[in-house]
Amino acid sequence: MQTPANIERAAQERVRLSDKQMCDRMEKILDGNPLAAEPSERRLVARLQTKASLSREEAMAVADGVQRLAAEQTKPNGRAKDRRRKPRGTATNGHAAMARAILATKTGGAERIYGSTIDFVGIAFLQRGFKAARAVGRVAFRDGRAQGSGVMISDRLFLTNNHVIPSADAASQFCIEFDYELDPADRPLGITRFALTPTDFFITDGTDDLDYTVIAVGPRLSGPKELSSFGWCVLNNKGDKHALGEVANIVQHPDGRYKEVVLRENRLVNRLDTVLHYVADTEPGSSGSPVFNNEWRMIALHHWGGPWRQQTDPKGRPLPGEVNEGIRVSAIVSELLQRQSELGTPQQKLLKRALDMGIAEQDPPDAPEQNANGHSTTPVARLTPDGVVTWQVPFELSVRLPWQASAAAPLPSVATIADTVDAVPLLEATIKPSKNYENRSGYKPAFITGFTVDLPKLSPAQKQQAAKNKQADAGDDPFELKYHHFSVVMNAKRRLAFFTACNIDGNRAKHVDRKTGKVTELQPDDPALESLMADAEGAEASEQWFDDDRLDPSDFAGKDIYDKQKVDGFPSGMGRTLRMFQRGHLVRRMDPAWGTDNQALVADADTFHFTNASPQVGFFNMGQAKSLNLPGTGGGRLWRAIENYVLRNAVADKQRVSVFTGPVFSNNDRKFRSIKVPGRFWKIVAWSDEGELRSAAMIADQRPVISVFPEAMGDLSEAFADEADLNKVKDFLTTVKKIEELTGLKFDAEMKTGDINAGAHESMKLVRDLESIELRPRRRKHR
User: Cα 311–312–318 angle (5° rounding)?
Assistant: First the structure.
């Protein structure tokens, strides 16, 4: 079928923006050193460990040899400077030879991975390929006309593109045909057809860089075989399935023809967050075809192919004329995990079975079962002498047992945690974010249905100050730090965030109890939305905050900024707490906590990275609005009330909302220890209203209460007389345009067009009570 115009345009634009990188990688492939096309040392090492059964040290040596050979090949007249960063723990000479020796020993021939014959494989390659190809079916109309391709991902579920099967209603006109192929004598096999049953399972995403549908296969319509005889190709999102420069193998029904396979010289040349680009021969009708690596593990779902305008590489050699785009399997798995809660219990069981199949095939039988994030799903408990027991699941859950425990005592299972929590109110839990950041999806620009709201753009001067993500791959935004459901861009000079961007799904919102780890559905009248003390994290509170290894420690304000503060005149008690600088959440922890219980837990945990903290004086950070109808809720309480107003309405309306937050940096900000503390914070909320994008902007000013400064060198004249002074904090409604002026950031034009306050007041409007705020569009004038 014809690829939809929106996918065509988006894919072409992604190719255009990646053109130079793809051309450079094809140069390395044509030089006979294809693995040098992989820009991520971390991924290449992981891939070599898996592909060639190398130790980490051996894989690092091979990776270094690959890159050194590439440096030699690109030297003009043999004397170019090698500008690469040398991997830690590797020697400096002879690594190309060492790499070949290691691979020759481990694989029986270095050429199997290293050099132009990367696709040399054993005979088992054909056996595994035949097995994988059995699971590929043709999507056809009931009258036999071809629609696309797809693949079984479990004994019941079938994966294809959204643009092949766009809706549950459309599914009734299609069937799945297996064995639509020729036998060794070029005679057609007997076709077996199956109906689709979207009532049993259906989930889809039409976003141009996801474009997938998973649907249940139903009863047999015709043909001799059972569905189980065709097997399945499992899904998982581990990061060791491919490296750029490797080959891609595609099983397809091109233009509706009998099943074909595309092998050899189909190189992976580009990787973005949700898509892979590869040069291979595909035709219309290949949409929905699985893309495999050389171990026949599925790495992508093909959805587009088109001309590549780049004709030659930097050395003038001709390049393939076609480039293709496939949706990364890891992106599909991440989306499926996030959307499980949309499904009923029977559908959740079908999806869990499919994902569990992917997990099981990843690991040897005697290894602990791994989930899609690479962590053990068979909990392994550790007990320390002081009574802290830790279970390793998709995150670490550490609990201090309220009774006396010993190392010899039996440990409760994860399944009994909830019962234990209910029985023992004093249970303490600590949820630690995973240090494996590769599977974080981050903020999604296309999250609000029908709109694409990109991250704010930094000015050239701000890019010079921005902290670089040391683990960013080629094609990634080098400044974006992705977490679960939100992203952060850091100002390394100020050691605080330029901004945060968070997606909120009100339909799947959860409340995480930080004391117990218990997760419950978040309701519009949830008490958690009335009391905001849960968001207030004192500098010496028990909550633990975490560094982000993707940044240098000097890029963010860490533990040293908040620990052991001196507040003269207030050695202890609430007076001291209210005057300390606390770790104020920019993305507040309740906002990204949606999806499955596990997803809510890990998203909540991610908000406790220091990259998401900004010093906020206690008077401001701990402001709360016990009633949203309470008049005169100023003093920062209004800021908190607005946050709750946004989340409450997202939950009540089951709506998707995107929220941007950050500080206003000023040269006049007061210095505290090694940083300057921002006096003002801004927030912009974006949502869809009857098919139009709307936005609202606001600012809170904590400068009036920062005059009570920690470590004020004994100047007690700065002390507040009473808590009523909290009302000195000012809250404002403003415009997206004004926030651009204050911050230097640039927001999408649609954000400014849909600003509900634009034109009403182009500066800032002081707000004294919540009732004066209207988070709805201005009435239009009839023409």
Answer: 90
Q: Are 598 and 394 in contact (CB under 8 A)?
A: yes
pLDDT attached to residue 619? 56
Cα–Cα distance measured from residue 371 to residue 414, given in angstroms and rounded to the nearest whole number: 15
pLDDT per residue as tens digits for the range 391-446: 443 344 444 444 343 444 444 443 333 333 333 232 334 567 888 787 788 999 98
Sheet containing 275-278: order of strands: 260-262, 249-252, 290-292, 298-307, 322-328, 275-278, 268-271
Per-residue confidence (pLDDT) for residue 433, from 0 to 100: 84
Q: Are strands 680-689 and 136-141 parallel, antiparallel or unpaired?
A: unpaired
**DSSP structure string for 129-196:** HHHHHHTEEEEEETTS-EEEEEEESSSSEEEE-TTTS--TTGGGGEEEEE--SB-TTS-BPPPEEEEE
d(CA 654, CA 546): 32
| Residues in a beta bridge with 305 | 324
Q: Rg of the Cα trace of the chain?
A: 28
Tokens (6 digits) for 16: 């255009």
Residue with tokens 């404002």: 732
- pLDDT on residue 714: 33
Q: Which residues, at least 6 apart from 224, have a Cβ–Cβ distance to it below 8 Å? A: 190, 192
Cα dihedral 112, 117, 121, 122, rounded to 10, equals -80
Give me the pLDDT at residue 566, please.
73
Secondary structure of 662-698 in HEC code, one letter for each residue: EEECCCCCEEECCEEECCEEEEEEEEEECCEEEEEEE
Q: For residue 27, give the DSSP letter.
A: H
Nearest to 401 by CA among 430, 431, 428, 432: 428
Torsion 637-643-649-654 (CA) sign:
negative
- Tell me how many helices (H) and strands (E) the chain has: 18, 32
Q: What is the DSSP string of 95-121?
A: HHHHHHHHHHHHHS-GGGTSSTTTT--
Express the helix, strand and coil content of the chain in percent, nearest 5 each.
30, 25, 45
Output the six-digit token pair for 29. Answer: 């492939």
Q: DSSP character for 76?
A: G
| Residue type at position 621 | N
Pick the CATH number of 460-772 from 3.40.570.10, 3.40.50.1820, 3.20.20.80, 3.90.1150.10: 3.40.570.10
DSSP annotation of 235 reads -
The full set of domain ranges for the chain reads 33-115, 133-230, 373-432, 460-772
**Separation between Cα atoms, residue 195 and residue 116, nearest integer Å:** 45
CA distance 602 to 619: 29
Beta carbons of 443 and 456 less than 8 angstroms apart: no
pLDDT tens, position by position, 510-524: 888 877 778 888 877
CB hemisphere CA count around 88 (13 angstroms): 1
Torsions phi, psi for 171 (to 5 deg)? -65, -25
The helix (run of H) or strand (run of E) holding residue 605 is helix 597-606
Q: Specify the DSSP class assigned to residue 731.
A: E
CB atoms near residue 264 (< 10 Å): 9
Q: Phi, psi at residue 19, to the nearest 5°?
A: -55, -45
Ranges of the chain with pLDDT below 70:
1, 74-123, 264-265, 280-285, 309, 311, 360-431, 527-543, 568-580, 617-645, 702-732, 759-783
Q: Left (φ > 0), alpha (ψ -120 to 50) or beta: where does 246 sit?
A: beta
- What sign for the dihedral angle of Cα 586, 588, 589, 593? negative
Strands (E), 368-495: 381-383, 388-392, 396-400, 428-432, 480-482, 486-491
To the question of domain 133-230 being in CATH 2.40.10.10, the answer is: yes
Integer Cα distance of 585 and 606 in angstroms: 11
Contact (CB, 8 A) for 139 and 165: yes
